[in-house]
Write a structure and sequence with these properties.
5 strands, 18% strand
Length: 159
């Protein structure tokens, strides 16, 4: 049975994330959406909130589970028996960072592969940071995030 992990902060989950998860769920028998419990980023939602939003966003994917993770992703993945990591590439600007991360992970864990998937071009410019900024300024985010995420953003930001 093939099993992969799609890890990220998912703060918040966007349609781009959902699209990559859908693509990965078609390729692998099982997909674990691994939500980072610790982030260098300034997160808006707690790990529990991000996991709940991720679960509702991918509930239609029966072979996907949502779990938290902390520490080095490759070590966590190995401990879970997962040897393929999914990374989404939105635009060429993502490539350099993702390439460096994939090569570093390969050096740390040569038995763990990284697979890059691109979301539908409709979502190629959408980022969680951009969505948070739009929501904070009172803009409409419904075209970028699932409905539950939009409601959570409005509640969290008071917009």
């Amino acid at each position: 049975m093939s099993h992969a992990a799609y890890a990220g902060t998912f703060d918040p989950m966007t349609f781009g994330h959902v699209d990559v998860a859908e693509r990965a769920a078609q390729v692998f028998d099982r997909l674990t959406l691994a939500v980072s419990a610790v982030s260098r980023k300034n997160v808006l939602f707690s790990v529990e909130e991000r996991m709940a939003l991720a679960r509702t966003s991918v509930a239609h994917l029966k072979n996907v589970e949502v779990v938290p993770f902390s520490g080095l992703l490759v070590e966590w993945a190995r401990n879970q028996g997962i040897y393929t990591l999914i990374r989404g590439l939105r635009a060429f600007s993502d490539f350099e960072y993702e390439f460096q991360m994939a090569l570093t992970n390969r050096n740390l864990a040569p038995d763990v592969e990284t697979m890059f998937l691109m979301p539908n071009e409709e979502y190629s410019y959408v980022s969680s940071s951009l969505v948070k900024e739009i929501a904070a300024l009172g803009g409409e985010v419904e075209k970028f995030v699932p409905p539950e995420v939009a409601v959570a953003l409005w509640k969290k930001l008071g917009t």
